[in-house]
Amino acid sequence: MYTSVNSRVASAYQKIGAESRVMGASAHGLVQVLFDEFFVAMTMAREGLRNKDRVLKAKKIALAGRILQGGLLESLDMEAGGELALNLRALYNYCLQRLTWANLRDDEEALAEVVRLIEPVAQGWKQIEGEAHV
Asked: Which of 16, 61, 84, 133 is spaced 20 to 30 Å from 53 by Cα?
């Protein structure tokens, strides 16, 4: 399926911006980049779904899944994190299942659910950084 020039330019700009943010970022900052990129991917997946652009939808859902699985889930310290890490692992795994469902069934509500579930975690993460600098 054809993507507009604006969409391709925005995607290239976003990639450069994300790469720039990663260079020199703290461990906390790197996780923040993961959350930010996750939400961008989810927004674009929903846009692809609404516009019947199945390729965009599938690519962005896959990207969101890779961020959850290969970034956020893999970065959990299961030994030091205790119950919180266990709960986050369960949440991320559930969200991965919902992303798969959303992709297979073109279910925008499932995508919205995943965003609603991850938003408080991302906000909490952002708040932790603010408290660390106080």
From this structure: 16
